[in-house]
Amino acid sequence: MRAAIAELSASRIREVANAGIGRSDVLAFWFGESDAPTPQAIKDAAVASIQRGETFYAHNLGLPELRAAIADYASSLHRPVTADRIAVTSAGVNALMLAQQVLLDAGDEVVAVVPVWPNLTAQPIIMGATVKRVSLHPDATGQWQLDLAELLAAITPATKMLVVNAPNNPTGWTLTRAEQQAILDHCRQTGTWILADEVYERLFYEGDATAAPSFLDIADPDDRLVVVHSFSKSFLMTGWRLGNLVGPAALIEQLGKLIEFNTSCAPVFVQRAGLAALELAPTSVPELQAHLKLCRDTLVGALRELPRVMVATPPGAMYAFLCVDGEGDSLALAKRLVVENGLGLAPGAAFGDEGEGWLRWCFASQDVARLRLGVARLAQALNT
Ligand SMILES: Cc1ncc(COP(=O)(O)O)c(C=O)c1O
After folding, report:
1. pLDDT tens for residues 301-323?
2. Does ligand 1 have an atom closer than 6 angstroms to the CB of 123?
3. What is the C-alpha separation between 45 and 62, in angstroms, rounded?
4. pTM of this structure
5. Are 356 and 330 in contact (CB under 8 A)?
6. Ligand 1: which of 13, 199, 236 to mutate, judged by most atoms within 8 Å of the beta carbon?
7. Contact 364/302 with Cβ under 8 angstroms?
8. Distance (Å, rounded) from C-alpha 72 to C-alpha 87?
9. Which of 123, 163, 169 to mutate to test the pocket of ligand 1 (most atoms within 8 A of CB)?
10. Is the Cβ atom of 243 under 6 angstroms away from ligand 1?
11. Which ligand 1 atom sits nearest the alpha carbon of residue 92?
């Protein structure tokens, strides 16, 4: 087996979840998904597709009508995007992997903004690339911030790709338009590709914006830019495995070949569900966003009442990232919370050494009272 694969570390979130296996009393906030099921209209579209007999292979890059609908959707949020710049993928993680397969050679240098969902830094390693980590820094309130000068200094002509996820899992940190412009300008100079993971773009809570700032708002169609989206988070479709990416048309054409060797295509009935999700989006996404904002404010407000806990209000995504004073080992703390208090949180160390000492709490809960109950369990744990 390749050493790069053998050396990949197992998920620390799973390690915590395993400590609570078989226990129905655990309040689990450890995984990055809502506890709400997929909306009925989306499920109905998939069932109708199967009933019609749509059970065959399809085009590598996705159904033309879904590519067109994704292009319209992206264009409604950002600068106009044409369908030839869209590839439909088997979820966001597959889109990220494909982008790296098409762009990275073994030995290439990747710069990654961290802490981050661990798949993003494991994927370049799988490709045989090296990863230079540039850390966000927590300020005195627990809000994580980018040192733009530090990031730009790390990206040189030797850097093949920048991997950046904003709104960010786990910190909720979000790039500003000015930072995106500076990064884009710099990467144009160094010839570096930007792989922007924007799967949380609609889960953004600042002002009345419909989406977080995106590289698609400022880039030209042939910039070295790939933006990854997912149906998982804003359409409550984690189990369906549907995503997409936007890139230069010439790259997407090549990507079609690569998809053939990975999954060949996304299942047609899942793509039909994706079409239904996009039709529903004008009402469903603002509703979800408003509910998650309520969840965020409820959770952060309650956590701030606790002694020893530092937590900032995240501008985007669906996680509170908190620090408990005096608790340096996040894995040990997360396991203790599961075993002794029935509270399931993700250890910050799961997102890299930079997240050590922190805990991630997914606040995408249908029932806000569940969040309050979780905070009561944390309070009990910290009192004992
Ligand atoms: C930052 C980020 N990117 C991508 C994904 C992938 O989502 P999916 O593969 O379900 O589309 C996730 C899932 O948690 C994520 O947090």
Report:
1. 999 999 999 999 999 999 999 99
2. no
3. 17
4. 0.97
5. yes
6. 199
7. no
8. 14
9. 169
10. yes
11. 11
Ligand 1 pocket, 117 CB below 6 A? yes
- The mean pLDDT values, 10 residues at a time, for the chain of 384 residues are 90 88 90 95 98 97 98 98 98 98 97 97 96 97 97 98 98 98 98 98 95 98 98 98 98 96 97 98 97 98 95 98 94 95 96 96 97 97 84
Output the CATH code of domain 40-281. Answer: 3.40.640.10
CB 92 less than 6 A from any atom of ligand 1: yes
Cα dihedral 20→24→26→28 (10° resolution) = 90
Q: Which two tokens stand for residue 364?
A: 């995408």
- In the DSSP assignment, the letter for residue 105 is P
Q: Where in the chain is the domain with CATH 3.40.640.10?
A: 40-281
Cβ atoms 70, 271 nearer than 8 A = no
The helix (H) or strand (E) run that includes residue 331 is helix 330-341
142 CA from centroid of ligand 1 (Å): 23
Residue 172 amino acid letter:
G
Which of 156, 142, 150, 158 lies closest to 113 in space, CA to CA?
A: 150
Ligand 1 pocket mutation, candidates 117, 171, 175, criterion most atoms within 8 A of CB: 117
Q: Determine the CATH number of domain 3-38+283-383.
A: 3.90.1150.10
User: In the chain, where does the domain assigned CATH 3.90.1150.10 lie?
Assistant: 3-38+283-383
